[in-house]
Q: What sequence folds into this?
């Protein structure tokens, strides 16, 4: 499935005849740099769970990967996280310069909306559903979603004091795009309101579990790097889930959220939720 996504991403890039080479190279560089393709897999699997059109779902799957890739390019910039490496390669701005990296991110974001807007004409997806998908992507990637989560995170670095604030950041920075992916797949397949609600709950729960697991893996990575420091020494380093509730309780929380997410899904009368359930288990058990 993820190879299919990578190959369709290449097909969806705007023709090199029409776009300055530096821009298309910079967009391609980050899109083709690897990554788990988690969000596209969620779109495809949600659509599959209801027996929907996989070709149309592939379009939305690629669009959400473009939005995710834009967010990573911008997150790595000197004005934000100032990272030199991403997905094992130099970050976009290290290769193409800051200005081009900013524009590559902008272009991926806008091009994602373009591709979604074509789903009615190209694949006959109901126009009302396309409109809802556009509405949900604007909401979940925008100021009330991922961008809101990102700024709350940046401001939180000066003094993140409670778990509710951290949850707000995790839900918007991470879960929102995951929820979007599931809803988009569901909408393409004609999900009813009850099924959409179940997909939303599943996404919120596994999105939060995914981010807490990320916090845990980060902490374990730091512990290994720091050698013999005690667990509580390490927990003081970064304001994450383990910082607030400890490592064991964080692990329990990941298991609980995954279980609740799967229960919500199983209550929704989907034709075949098996791949979505597998993804939830994969996220629970991942070690990188
Ligand atoms: C710049 C608007 C803006 C937002 C940035 C995505 C993001 C928001 C920041 C990246 C840092 C981070 C840890 C975000 C939480 C979400 C997350 C775990 C992203 C990484 O997603 P993966 O693990 O990445 O799916 P790959 O590379 O596998 O696609």
A:
């Amino acid at each position: 499935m993820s190879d299919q996504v990578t190959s369709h991403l290449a097909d969806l890039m705007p023709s090199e005849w029409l776009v300055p080479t530096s821009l298309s190279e910079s967009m391609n560089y980050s899109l083709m740099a690897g990554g788990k393709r988690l969000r596209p897999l969620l779109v495809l699997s949600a659509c599959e769970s209801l027996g929907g059109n996989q070709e149309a779902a592939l379009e939305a799957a690629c669009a959400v990967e473009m939005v995710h890739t834009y967010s990573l390019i911008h997150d790595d910039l000197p004005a934000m996280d100032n990272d030199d490496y991403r997905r094992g390669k130099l970050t976009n701005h290290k290769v193409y310069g800051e200005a081009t990296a900013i524009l590559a991110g902008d272009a991926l974001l806008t091009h994602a909306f373009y591709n979604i807007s074509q789903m009615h004409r190209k694949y006959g997806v109901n126009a009302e559903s396309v409109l809802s998908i556009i509405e949900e992507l604007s909401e979940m990637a925008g100021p009330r979603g991922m961008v809101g989560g990102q700024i709350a995170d940046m401001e939180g670095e000066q003094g993140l004091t409670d778990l509710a604030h951290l949850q707000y950041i995790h839900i918007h920075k991470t879960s929102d795009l995951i929820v979007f992916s599931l809803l988009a797949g569901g909408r393409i397949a004609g999900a009813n309101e009850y099924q959409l609600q179940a997909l939303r709950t599943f996404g919120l729960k596994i999105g939060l579990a995914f981010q807490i697991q990320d916090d845990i893996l980060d902490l374990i990575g730091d512990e290994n790097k720091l050698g013999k420091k005690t667990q509580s020494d390490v927990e003081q380093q970064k304001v994450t889930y383990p910082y607030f509730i400890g490592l064991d309780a964080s692990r329990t929380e990941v298991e609980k959220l995954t279980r609740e997410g799967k229960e919500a899904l199983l209550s929704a009368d989907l034709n075949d939720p098996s791949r979505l359930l597998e993804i939830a288990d994969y996220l629970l058990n991942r070690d990188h």
Notes: The longest helix spans residues 193-226.
